[in-house]
């Protein structure tokens, strides 16, 4: 049987080759598939053929130039395949054993949604009965179709906004990156949007079909390489190495034992190495490692093969009795768990125990360790049930730390810190002196961005940059502090009011003084366990006591974050995905998290600008 249409073999490798229509110049376009596996080559060629047909149609119908259409298409597919590659790497850390099946279903749903919208436009948002029957006949489940409808709803947002604004900025940015220009007519944009959706959809459907070579490709950098026989245009597609192991003869197969060290300490080391490869935050890795080592101390079990359900149950019982701030003081830092528990039981006043959130987090960490053990072939974790040990929270999570109200925020920033104090010593007494230090800036940043205290306090001057013409601060791991989760890493525009208050002048003065930290007065003391931002805690609590005469009830610095989330959530102009990108939250569903692109800086700036301004005196007017 011969090769399929447009697929050719050159020496030991395969290539895709097709003649361009005469209307767009004729000639041949050739793509090296960089594989010698015929099955892989056929799957990649099918994807390329489908996309080339749509692209050629656009070029002939709308006059999109051959070069621009090709450059945009290859750029979009490149970025989508890179995103899929990253998602597949993260999947290895998912505790859900059916994660790969969910991923396949979501790849299909989003890929199908994008191509439906590219073909039908806004009319493709609502599936017809005929669509549903066709999908069911093709083997899709009702769950798959529900996911498709959710994906259509997410991606259809672009059709509800004017061209090149709102969610459509992602298409414009893709066109700018690929075509090296910034100005597009509405017709050019509409053509680009169709190519953009088709390109993303092609990559996702390739991943769904199990085409690992195509789905893992991360580089389409070699373009328009001409062969010796012009006018054939070549685009070099470079998937990662895909080698097949030599077949093993049945007579050579021998039963082997588990070569992994069964010591739980060794298992923890291997899990932590995996976390580092996935670039999880240093803070989370350290916290997880300490928690898992405490599990060994609490149970006395050192070999994973000896672990039983009773050991895990006893460990959770111990967590209920453990004081909330164990090993925080110099007195308890070197005490064993048994000594700490004994001291807690003999105390006249029973100490506050670990919270439900902390206990469940420790159980989740243990679950990841057991998953790692199962992946290495250990049997004992298969009999451990952690779900029965998890605790249900007594109330709503959002009630644990109540948000500031709008009135609270206005009252707080009426304090002398932001309007002038009598002196640095009498900082709560109204006067003329405004000190632009961490206490002045950090709460204002929190109220106008929703960032966490440590995220703001630990910023370095290199984290303040102008990006796409917008002054921003970058929340990322640096030498001062790590970040809470992978999703916490983000770029945030600086609120216009902070710029009006002279923030950039403040940062530039620090640079001129040779500083590296944005808030050097927040640096933790040498030899302490304090973190960046800890120094502000005492004085900020005094500000709250001074200004919130009513409704103080458990409110703290963290209440700023809840305040911002509430304010953005109430705005009718701020989309949910933009709000989540601002505060560093993951999507509300796997579809939203995996496939909705990060909001642009322009979208974030528009959203942040909706936050109510604070009643702060302009420090540049102070002497």
Describe this structure in words.
The protein is mainly α and 623 residues long. Helix content is 47%, strand content 6%. The chain is globular, with a radius of gyration of 29 Å. Strands 1-2-3-5-4 form a five-stranded mixed β-sheet, with helices on one face. The chain has three domains: 230 residues, no CATH class; 126 residues, no CATH class; 223 residues, hpI Integrase, Chain A (Orthogonal Bundle), CATH 1.10.443.10. The longest helix is centred in the N-terminal third of the chain and has 26 residues. β1 and β2 form a beta hairpin. The termini are far apart. It is built from 24 helices and eight strands. α1 crosses α2.
Short description:
The protein has 623 residues and is mainly alpha-helical. The chain has 24 helices and eight strands.
How many separate structural domains?
3
Radius of gyration: 29 Å
**What share of the residues does DSSP label as strand, in percent?**
5-15%
Number of helices: 24
Structural class, judged by helices and strands?
Answer: mainly alpha
Strands side by side in the biggest sheet: 1-2-3-5-4
């Amino acid at each position: 049987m011969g090769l399929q249409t447009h697929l050719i073999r050159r020496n030991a490798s395969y290539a895709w080759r097709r003649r361009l229509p005469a209307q767009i110049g004729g000639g041949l376009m050739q793509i090296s598939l960089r594989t010698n596996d015929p099955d892989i080559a056929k799957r990649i060629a099918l994807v390329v053929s489908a996309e080339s047909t749509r692209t050629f149609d656009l070029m002939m119908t709308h006059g999109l130039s051959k070069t621009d259409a090709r450059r945009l298409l290859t750029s979009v597919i490149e970025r989508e395949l890179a995103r899929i590659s990253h998602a597949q790497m993260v999947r290895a850390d998912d505790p859900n054993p059916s994660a790969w099946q969910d991923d396949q279903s979501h790849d299909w749903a989003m890929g199908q949604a994008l191509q439906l919208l590219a073909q039908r436009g806004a009319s493709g948002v609502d599936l017809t009965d005929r669509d549903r029957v066709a999908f069911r006949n093709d083997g899709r489940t009702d769950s798959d179709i529900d996911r498709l409808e959710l994906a259509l709803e997410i991606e259809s947002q672009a059709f509800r906004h004017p061209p090149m604004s709102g969610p459509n900025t992602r298409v414009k940015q893709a066109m700018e990156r690929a075509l090296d220009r910034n100005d597009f007519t509405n017709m050019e944009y509409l053509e680009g949007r169709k190519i953009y959706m088709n390109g993303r959809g092609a990559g996702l459907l390739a991943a769904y079909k199990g085409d690992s070579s195509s789905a893992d490709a991360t580089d389409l950098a070699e373009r328009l390489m001409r062969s010796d026989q012009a006018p054939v245009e070549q685009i070099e597609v470079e998937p990662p190495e895909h080698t097949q192991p030599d077949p093993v003869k049945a007579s050579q197969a021998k039963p082997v034992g588990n070569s992994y060290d069964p010591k739980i300490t060794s298992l923890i080391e291997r899990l932590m190495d995996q976390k580092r490869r996935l670039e999880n935050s240093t803070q989370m890795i350290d916290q997880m490692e300490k928690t898992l080592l405490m599990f060994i101390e609490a149970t006395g079990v050192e070999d994973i093969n000896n672990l039983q359900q009773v050991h895990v149950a006893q460990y959770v019982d111990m967590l209920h009795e453990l004081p909330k701030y164990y090993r925080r003081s110099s007195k308890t830092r070197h005490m064993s768990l048994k000594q700490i528990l004994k001291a807690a039981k003999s105390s006249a006043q029973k100490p506050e125990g670990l919270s439900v959130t902390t206990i469940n987090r420790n159980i989740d960490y243990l679950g990841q360790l057991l998953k790692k053990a199962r992946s290495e072939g250990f049997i004992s974790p298969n009999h451990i049930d952690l779900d029965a040990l998890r605790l249900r929270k007594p109330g709503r999570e959002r009630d644990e730390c109540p948000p500031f109200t709008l009135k609270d925020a206005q009252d707080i920033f009426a304090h002398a810190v932001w309007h002038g104090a009598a002196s640095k010593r009498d900082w709560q007494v109204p006067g003329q002196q405004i000190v632009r230090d961490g206490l002045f800036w950090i709460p204002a940043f929190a109220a106008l961005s929703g960032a966490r205290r440590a995220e703001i306090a630990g910023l370095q001057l290199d984290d303040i940059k102008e990006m796409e013409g917008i002054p921003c601060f970058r929340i990322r791991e640096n030498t001062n502090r790590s970040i809470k989760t992978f999703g916490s890493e983000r770029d945030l525009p600086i609120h216009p009011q902070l710029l009006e208050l002279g923030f950039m002048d403040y940062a530039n003065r620090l640079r001129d003084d040779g500083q590296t930290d944005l808030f050097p007065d927040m640096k933790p003391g040498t030899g302490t366990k304090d973190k960046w931002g800890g120094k502000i805690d005492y004085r900020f609590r005094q500000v709250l006591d001074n200004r919130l005469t009513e409704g103080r009830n458990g409110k703290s610095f963290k209440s700023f974050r809840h305040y911002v989330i509430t304010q953005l959530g109430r705005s009718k102009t701020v989309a949910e995905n933009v709000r989540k990108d601002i505060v560093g939250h993951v999507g509300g569903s796997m579809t939203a998290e995996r496939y909705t692109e990060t909001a642009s800086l322009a979208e974030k700036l528009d959203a942040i600008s909706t936050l109510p301004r604070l009643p702060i005196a302009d420090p540049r007017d102070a002497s």
